[in-house]
Amino acid sequence: MSGGEDGVDKFARGLAAEIAEAGSPYESEELTRLTLERLAEEAVFENPILLMQEGSFGRGRYAISGYSISDEEDRLTLFATLYFGVLPPRSVTAGDLKQAAELAARFLWYSAQGLHEKIEPANTDASDLARRLFDLSATARISHLKVVVLTDGRVEGREVELTDREGTRVEVELFGIERLHRILGEGVSREDIVVDLEEMGSGPLACLDCGYEGDYRAYLAVVPGTLLAAAYQRYGTRLLELNVRAFLGLRGRKSVNAGLRTTLREEPQHFLAYNNGIVATVDGIDLNQAGDGSLSVSRLTGLQIVNGGQTTASIHRAVTVDRIDVSSVRVPAKIIVVQQDDLSRMVAAISRSANSQNTVQPADFSANDPFHVAVESLAANGGFSGETQHLQGERWRVAN
Fold first, then answer.
1. Which long-range contacts (CB under 8 A, 24 or more apart) does 348-353 make?
2. Confidence class of residue 323 from pLDDT cuts 50, 70 and 90?
3. CA 81, CA 76: separation in Å to the nearest integer?
4. 296 phi-psi bin (left φ>0, alpha ψ -120 to 50, beta other)
5. How far apart are CA 352 and CA 307, in angstroms?
6. What is the β-pairing status of strands 205-212 and 216-224?
7. Is 302 helix (H, G, I), strand (E, B) or coil?
8. 112 contacts 137 by C-beta, under 8 angstroms
9. Residue scoring higher pLDDT (270 or 317)
């Protein structure tokens, strides 16, 4: 048995001991509670809520163990739990995994058909969620459903696919004991963030190698808005895990995010010129070199957007909520490959530097208008009386 397998088995024993210590007769629920709490702490999922609910609707069955809904209410995550309580962990069959995923996905489909009317009134949380999804289905708001299967069994090498349905894209993620060990046991959460540009419909991006500076290497690129939206769709706030300023929404920094939204809606082709861009760190980067020596990036591993989270989330919102075409949007990007030992220090320095620049007030942008320049000159030389008519004419010209 390899060292990696020994580590997984040890983690599984520790997790099983915690479940036993809780003294709950509902071990599946306890596994779900522990994993959801810790995955939320690692920013793998955004505000997951424990909800054990199963039942029948018509001739079909459904079963979920939790859920999470994005702030925009367009992305839904439903959790399904397969608990075995076997040590060492057993291998889970593809059939069991697919059945669990299907039962969870049905909660959304059945909710759209009025499941809330069939759930026992005592199950308030479940009926409230079903009613909420029923109301959202009337406006076709859930564009993306992610089904997450949590299990204390081994799933390495398994894949499960479910068919998209009624305009909703369906994705299945498997969190077996091996993946839980990597994220929770070893404290590694970024390694699961892999942005394959070909897979995400972008293709390799031309980049400029800025050179090696001892503890990092930097590249400059221009990233399509569609790629940023796709990455955020898949990984959500996990992309911003190391960002000191997560997306605040239009309710927060209204002037910033509303301005981004206006540009995306009215002048998407000018986004590159108006936007400061993003700064990202990666654990690894795959590069292609052409015969003429030019470089392109094809894959990013451990991507973290340490500055530009508002830009990224605003583009995603424009696509998924406002239905804006961002195919002409381009975003300047600085990509920094950092040695693992220096990651925390480097990210802190980048975030501190990028977010501590002097604030520019709207009035500052008119400081170089001819009228204001003339006023400043006259004020400095005490010459207001002889220039009144000229200034009035200049003021009219600037204002009109």
1. 350/279, 350/281, 350/306, 350/307, 351/242, 351/243, 351/244, 351/245, 351/306, 351/307, 352/244
2. confident
3. 17
4. beta
5. 10
6. antiparallel
7. coil
8. yes
9. 270
